């Protein structure tokens, strides 16, 4: 099978690329930055904001893993890269099947269900987005779901070696012997191993799937206290966790965001509402459809792997 992978030099796209090659598929890697040359791999440099890819070769499936991931950047940037880039992908391959790597951030922060009940794929995306990133991912989903045989994968808080987003943010929370954790110790955090995202994406390429939207998450959520301890152990951090509680975390995030916006800061503050939504609110994602439709079995979260590695070139091209 010939598969195109956008965002192929990024964190998620690179993992998908590796697994596709390991399974013996021919891969067209698409990214702004180069990827390592390997048998079965063709690389084309492509900035999605430039429009459709000229002289595009035929492919059977497109795994669309490219998106702009910095939630602090303005909507115009996300619209150009994530939304406009998706339109460019669809225009380039009007007949190919699409597997989109989206995000669980499109779900409502508090679904209309009892607390800690599982969020399943029948819950409608929110209309009140905490960031331009989640808003763009929701628009991206609507674009691709208009095409038959599309599969949308929704991971949450993707982790693993080389994570260019969440781990650096946790590292920034180390202050004066404390690791500041925005939430309560028993808040349930449902993470997604980057290897699981790759398995789901490759399975969606190989297996006919009746479902259009699939959650992708590790076997079980973990208490925030366990996440903090696991990440600290994996990275040799000696700081003791300090749990702020959810109300304090939300108040701090809103105040810091307000000040940063007022000062027109080009980088996000230490704490944002989007970051708090990942760690201070218990969110559990059902993965029954992932098992039933693709035969992909989530594993227990392994935080021992969540360490920095030399950052893949183009790591900002793709993440959920």
TrEMBL record:
Any Pfam family hit: Epimerase
Domain of life, per lineage: Bacteria
Segments of this protein annotated with the region Disordered: 301-320
Record InterPro entries: Epimerase_deHydtase, NAD(P)-bd_dom_sf, NAD(P)-dependent_oxidoreduct
Residues in NAD-dependent epimerase/dehydratase domain copies: 3-207
Protein name: NAD-dependent epimerase
Provenance organism: Terrabacter tumescens
């Amino acid at each position: 099978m010939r598969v195109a992978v956008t965002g192929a030099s990024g964190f998620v796209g690179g993992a998908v690329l590796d697994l596709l090659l390991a399974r013996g598929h021919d891969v067209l890697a698409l990214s702004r930055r180069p990827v390592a040359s390997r048998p079965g791999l063709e690389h084309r440099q492509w900035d999605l904001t430039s429009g459709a890819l000229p002289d595009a070769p035929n492919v059977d499936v497109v795994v669309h893993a490219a998106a702009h991931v910095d939630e602090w950047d303005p909507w115009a940037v996300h619209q150009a890269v994530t939304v406009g880039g998706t339109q460019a992908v669809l225009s380039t391959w009007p007949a190919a099947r699409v597997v989109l790597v989206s995000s669980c951030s499109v779900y409502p922060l508090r679904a209309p269900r009892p607390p800690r009940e599982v969020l399943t794929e029948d819950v409608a995306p929110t209309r009140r987005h905490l960031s331009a990133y989640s808003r763009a991912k929701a628009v991206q989903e609507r674009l691709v779901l208009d095409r038959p045989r599309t599969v949308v994968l929704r991971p949450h808080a993707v982790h693993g070696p080389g994570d260019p987003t969440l781990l650096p943010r946790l590292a920034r929370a180390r202050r004066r012997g404390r690791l500041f954790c925005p939430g309560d110790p028993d808040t349930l955090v449902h993470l997604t191993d980057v290897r699981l995202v790759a398995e789901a994406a490759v399975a969606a390429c190989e297996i006919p799937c009746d479902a259009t939207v699939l959650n992708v998450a590790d076997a079980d959520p973990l208490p925030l206290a366990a996440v903090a301890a696991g990440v600290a152990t994996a990275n040799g951090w000696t700081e003791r966790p300090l749990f702020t509680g959810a109300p304090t975390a939300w108040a701090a995030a809103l105040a810091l965001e307000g000040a940063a916006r007022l000062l027109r800061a080009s980088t996000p503050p230490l704490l944002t509402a989007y970051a708090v939504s990942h760690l201070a609110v218990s969110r559990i994602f059902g993965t029954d459809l992932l098992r039933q439709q693709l035969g992909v079995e989530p594993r227990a979260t392994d935080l021992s792997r969540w360490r920095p590695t030399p950052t893949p070139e183009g790591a900002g091209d793709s993440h959920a």
